């Protein structure tokens, strides 16, 4: 994606920008000297990309005129008629365009690249709309869409000569600017704006700029991926469902940006990055914790092949008295710098890591090894299911990609079909394609959250005898090397099974199977009768306390064969491991400590392989015949492994 953005960095670091002296009023209260100082400070601290916003009513300040009985009688700039010029026909302010041009020249001075969020109507808790369009359904009203099309066409045509601009962005979270009644309405708005931009500049990528997309609903990853070139997440643990269940320096929040961006990229089928992220200020955590969060999240995004990140935002805004700053208290202290220019620890860490990544003897980190494809199905809680699957896989020591059930199945040796929900199950055509893969030798894992599955008995070796609602949580006993491991898992229904031919790996106290294994054709089918993925995602403290809630051991059990190809194994659920094959005899391993404590972990290295070089963090040591590495709190160890042959 960095080639798409024409950036030299292997991982870019940036932020969202409003001027320190004015916030959203920076264009009407234009102060080029302060803007120059802001950008110099950001550049000195390592920021190379900023996302900037031409505030909609400042740049298109059109007003309605009315005659008798409230009849509409045209548009004006205040009392002035719209001039017979290109700008006038588009309702655009020539003065504001000149200020934006001056801004691009300041950015060029400090070699800062710009992502321009074009339709900036929604910002920090306030809706900004030109006077003529106030009260209209911004996303569906034909007049509102007409003026937005004119806005972006005029703006893009007149600014595309600036080489500081590397991408256009539809705007800031435009799906929050108003309600749409259907997926079709959301599609039409997106297509209208996207096509208007592309018509004037097809040379730069178009970024979606949306957040809170889902595989089904009005605003979908698939539609945004079809109509734009780059998808984005705005992964704040504070705002995102299930993400604030654990401390900010634990696995769930620090891996949040990674797993959400991968989910969008895989299902939307376009590159994706975290376009806004942050901790939401000092009422959530200290500056030191924010720095640890930034470090862990940045390392995680880099290790999983994401191209870069943008923090929210450049500067604190504690001294502003206009809306939204005088009504949304949490917007005041989100900056990487104070208004006076003090660089906070989070930016110091981001700048430090950027230099380390750029100095590594790797032109690019090779793609990570991925063992499984996780298929999300139609009627489940997709986000909760994706979270649970990703966290369990990470703690068990393997990696997954995501697909939705309406996408073609990629070839893989291992498929996950977690938390099948409801009577629709999986669409029959896709289901049969999946079963064909298993018959030919693939492994399939399924778990049930009251879901229906065709060919169930044939597939699993289990026959459902009865079904009833549970009065309490289920307790399963998983077979382990040192005895049974009890797992308490919330579940709505209990299915009573007759075991025809399945190997039972976990069962309830009454012997009813919970996790089983069976052959199907040349392949293998694992079945879990409980929604362990939802238990992982929908309960506070679970991923934060893997010893108390060892759900991950279920995924460790089902992935034993899939993990055999790995060069390195780490049996520590707080350490996330990615492997990157450079060539047949060289592998890069990234071990990330997703916890706030130092962890010394044994390394199980494949026979014939050894640690040749340490690129970052502590070097592994041989202690009494066991290779161990100490991974610092919320930090990483990066090593090169070499085959002796």
What is the tally of beta strands? 33
Estimate the strand proportion. 25-35%
The helix content, as a percent range, equals 25-40%
CATH superfamily of the largest domain: Glycosidases
Mean pLDDT: 95
Which regions have little confidence, pLDDT < 50, spanning 5+ residues?
A: none
The biggest sheet amounts to: 9 strands, mixed
Radius of gyration, taken over Cα atoms and rounded to an integer in Å: 27 Å
CATH class of the largest domain, named Alpha Beta
Spatial order of the strands forming the largest sheet? 15-14-16-17-24-23-22-19-20
Q: Supply the number of helical segments.
A: 15
Structure description:
The chain is α/β, with parallel strands linked by helices and 645 residues long. It folds into three domains: 12-359, Glycosidases (TIM Barrel); 372-564, Class I glutamine amidotransferase (GATase) domain (Rossmann fold, 3-Layer(aba) Sandwich), CATH 3.40.50.880; 566-643, Golgi alpha-mannosidase II (Immunoglobulin-like). Helices cover 27% and strands 27% of the residues. The chain is built from 15 helices and 33 strands. The strands form nine sheets. It has a nine-stranded mixed sheet. A six-stranded parallel sheet has the order 10-9-6-2-1-13. Strand 22 and strand 23 (513-520) form a beta hairpin. The two termini are 35 Å apart.
């Amino acid at each position: 994606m960095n080639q798409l953005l024409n950036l030299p960095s292997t991982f870019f670091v940036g932020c969202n920008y409003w001027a320190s002296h004015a916030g959203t009023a920076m264009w009407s209260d234009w102060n080029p000297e302060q803007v120059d100082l802001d950008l110099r400070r950001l550049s000195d601290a390592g920021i190379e990309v900023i996302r900037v916003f031409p505030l909609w009513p400042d740049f298109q300040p059109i007003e309605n005129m009315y005659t008798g009985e409230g009849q509409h009688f045209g548009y004006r700039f205040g009392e002035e008629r719209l001039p017979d010029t290109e700008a006038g026909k588009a309702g655009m302010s020539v003065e504001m365009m000149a200020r934006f041009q001056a801004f691009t020249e300041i950015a060029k001075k400090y070699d800062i690249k710009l992502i321009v969020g074009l339709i900036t109507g929604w910002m920090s808790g306030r809706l900004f709309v030109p006077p003529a369009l106030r009260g209209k359904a911004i996303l569906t009203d034909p007049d509102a869409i007409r003026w937005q099309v004119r806005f972006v066409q005029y703006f893009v045509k007149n600014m595309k000569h600036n080489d500081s601009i590397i991408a256009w962005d539809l705007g800031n979270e435009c799906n929050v600017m108003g309600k749409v009644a259907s997926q079709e309405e959301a599609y039409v708005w997106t297509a209208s704006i996207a096509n208007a931009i592309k018509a004037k500049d097809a040379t730069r990528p178009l970024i979606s700029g949306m957040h809170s997309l889902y595989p089904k609903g009005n605003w979908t990853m698939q539609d945004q991926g079809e109509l734009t070139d780059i998808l984005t997440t705005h992964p704040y643990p504070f705002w995102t469902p299930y993400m604030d269940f654990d401390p900010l320096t634990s696995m769930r929040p620090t891996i949040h940006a990674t797993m959400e961006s991968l989910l969008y990229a895989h299902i939307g089928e376009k590159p994706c990055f975290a376009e806004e992220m942050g901790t939401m200020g000092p009422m959530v955590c200290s500056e030191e914790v924010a720095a640890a969060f930034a470090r862990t999240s940045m390392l995680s995004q880099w290790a999983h092949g994401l191209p870069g990140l943008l923090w929210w935002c450049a500067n604190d805004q504690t001294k502003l008295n206009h809306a939204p700053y005088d009504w949304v208290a949490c917007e005041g202290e989100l900056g990487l710098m104070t208004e006076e220019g003090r660089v906070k620890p989070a930016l110091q860490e981001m700048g430090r890591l950027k230099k380390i990544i750029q100095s590594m003897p790797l032109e690019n980190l090779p793609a990570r090894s991925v063992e499984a494809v996780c298929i999300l199905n139609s009627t489940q809680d997709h986000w909760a299911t994706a979270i649970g699957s990703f966290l369990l896989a990470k703690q068990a020591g393997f990696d997954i990609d995501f697909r939705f059930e309406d996408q073609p199945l990629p070839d893989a040796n291992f498929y996950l079909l977690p938390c099948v929900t409801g009577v629709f199950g999986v669409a029959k055509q896709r289901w049969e394609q999946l079963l064909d893969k298993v018959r030919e030798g693939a492994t399939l894992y399924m778990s049930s959250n009251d879901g229906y599955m065709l060919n169930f008995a044939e597939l699993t070796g289990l026959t459902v005898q009865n079904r009833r609602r549970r009065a309490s949580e289920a307790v399963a006993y998983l077979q382990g090397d040192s005895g049974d491991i009890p797992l308490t898992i919330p579940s709505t229904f209990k299915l009573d099974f007759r075991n025809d031919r399945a190997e039972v790996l976990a069962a309830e106290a009454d012997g009813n199977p919970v996790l089983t294994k069976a052959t199907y054709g040349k392949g293998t089918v694992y079945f879990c009768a409980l929604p362990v993925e939802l238990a992982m995602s929908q309960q506070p403290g679970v991923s934060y306390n893997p010893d108390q809630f060892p759900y991950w051991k279920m995924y460790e059990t089902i992935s034993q064969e899939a993990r055999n190809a790995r060069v390195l194994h780490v049996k520590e659920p707080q350490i996330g491991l990615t492997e990157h094959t450079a060539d047949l005899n060289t592998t890069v391993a990234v071990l990330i400590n997703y916890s706030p404590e130092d962890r010394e972990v044994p390394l199980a290295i494949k026979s014939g392989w050894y640690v040749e070089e340490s690129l970052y963090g502590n070097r592994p040591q041989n202690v009494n015949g066991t290779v161990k590495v100490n991974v610092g709190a919320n930090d990483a160890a990066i090593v090169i492994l070499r085959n002796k042959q």
